[in-house]
């Protein structure tokens, strides 16, 4: 299992919600085809075919637990386990 696969598994595991580094969450979303826009400290992620726009803000070096849950729900709802081809 590569580091990228491990990062995705960490995001998908609910036991890790409070300990996901923000940069890991950003890199997982970008590898899954989400485009990043910055508005101050707000990181806005969108992807064609996904209705939701994910609005993330770091809490220090980690991601906020409720935002990790939002990302996980979108990944599972749209079955985005693999990077786009």
Write up this protein:
This protein is of the alpha+beta class. The chain has one domain: Metal Transport, Frataxin, Chain A (2-Layer Sandwich). Helix content is 39%, strand content 20%. The strands form 2 sheets. The protein has a 3-stranded antiparallel sheet. Strand 1 and strand 2 form a beta hairpin. The longest helix is centred in the last third of the chain and has 13 residues. The model has no long low-confidence stretch (mean pLDDT 95).
Quick structural overview:
By secondary structure, the chain is of the alpha+beta class.
Keywords, please?
85 residues; alpha+beta; Metal Transport, Frataxin, Chain A; three-stranded antiparallel sheet; two-stranded antiparallel sheet; 5 strands; globular
Q: Main sheet: which strands, in order across? A: 1-2-3
Order of helices and strands: HHEEEEEH
Q: What is the level-2 CATH architecture name?
A: 2-Layer Sandwich
Q: Looking at this structure, what is the CATH superfamily?
A: Hypothetical protein
Low-confidence stretches: none
Give the mean pLDDT: 95
Number of domains: 1
β content, as a range?
15-25%
> What distance lies between the first and last C-alpha atoms, to the nearest angstrom?
20 Å
The main sheet comes to:
3 strands, antiparallel
Determine the fraction of residues in helical runs and give it as a percent range: 25-40%
Protein structure class: alpha+beta
The coarse overall form would be globular
Count of separate DSSP helical elements: 3
Radius of gyration from the alpha-carbon trace, in angstroms: 12 Å
Q: Oligomerization state of this entry?
A: single chain
Under CATH, the topology is which? Metal Transport, Frataxin, Chain A
CATH C-level: Alpha Beta
How many beta strands in the DSSP annotation? 5
């Amino acid at each position: 299992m590569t580091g990228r696969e491990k990062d995705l598994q960490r995001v998908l595991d609910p036991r890790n919600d409070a300990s996901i580094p923000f940069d890991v969450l950003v890199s997982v979303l970008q590898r899954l085809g989400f485009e990043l826009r910055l508005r101050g400290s707000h990181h806005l992620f969108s992807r064609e075919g996904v209705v939701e726009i994910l609005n993330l803000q770091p809490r220090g070096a980690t991601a906020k637990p409720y935002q990790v849950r939002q990302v996980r729900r979108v990944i599972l709802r749209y079955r985005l386990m693999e990077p786009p081809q």
